[in-house]
Amino acid sequence: MAGEKVYHSAATAAERKPFVVSMGNVAASGGYYVAMAAEQIFVDPATVTGSIGIYGGKADFSGLYEKIEVGKELYTRGKYAGMLTNTRPFTDEEREKYHSHLKSFYGHFVDLVAESRNLPQDSVDCMSRGKVWTGREATVRGLADQTGGIKQALDYLANELGFEEYRVEILPRKRPWFIAPKIPFLGSLVSILTGRQEPSEVIPSSLPISEEESVFARMPFDIDIR
Fold first, then answer.
1. Strand, helix or coil at 14?
2. Positive or negative, the Cα torsion across 80, 85, 88, 89?
3. Domain boundaries, the chain
């Protein structure tokens, strides 16, 4: 449900403005689901992505409740209203019903990927079922478009919009008025308490990599030890 809500918001935004995805270290399962709203997907060679699948179940605490002598009374209205209760296991009929839900959700995921990536459904199904791919493998299989990071994604957008130059601003730019810029420890403490982040430069999250070179990775922040 969370992935569907984020995807819906991203798809709505993509109807009004260019929408490009740059994947970092991990963008799999729900992260990949959300990326289906993008017109282009950029990945690092070692990005963990894919994992097109779904699983589910429930916890059965009936043995625990019996051991600690806790009783729970369940009042339901409807044949499957108590299907997910943790006071007993699934019945055979409930298990079949729940499995049909999972199959339906999985089919929706596969259909979404097939439509968004312009791939045959049977091909997407073969690449799905929870399989995880690196960014390089995903690009070869059509699950992503290009190898690159945030810088490459921004360059792509600028080129599509016809901009020769662009500038990136990280917000919020203002520090709290009561924090002196010369007291980094106090500023960090307030940032933690208030959730405010200091401005920083946008640095490419990946480097161009050839087949002969090793994979490079860069953290999205710098560590300054004093």
1. helix
2. positive
3. 2-53+102-168
> What is residue 48's three-state secondary structure?
strand
Residue 40 confidence (pLDDT): 93
Contact 65, 87 (CB under 8 A): yes
Mean pLDDT check: name the lowest of 55-59, 61-65, 158-162, 198-202: 198-202
For the annotated catalytic residues, the residue numbers are 29
Q: Please give the Cα distance from 141 to 127 (Å, whole number).
A: 8
Are residues 20 and 156 in contact, defined by beta-carbon separation less than 8 angstroms?
yes
Q: Computed from CA positions of residues 142, 147, 152, 155, in that sequence, does the dihedral angle turn out positive or negative?
A: negative
131-176, pLDDT tens digit by residue? 999 999 999 999 999 999 888 999 999 998 888 888 888 777 666 5
CATH 3.40.50.2300 for domain 2-53+102-168, yes or no, is no
DSSP 133-157: EEHHHHHHTTS--EE--HHHHHHHH
CA–CA separation, 30 vs 182, rounded Å?
A: 41
pTM score, whole prediction: 0.68
Beta strand pairing call for 26-28 and 146-147:
unpaired
CA distance 27 to 41: 11
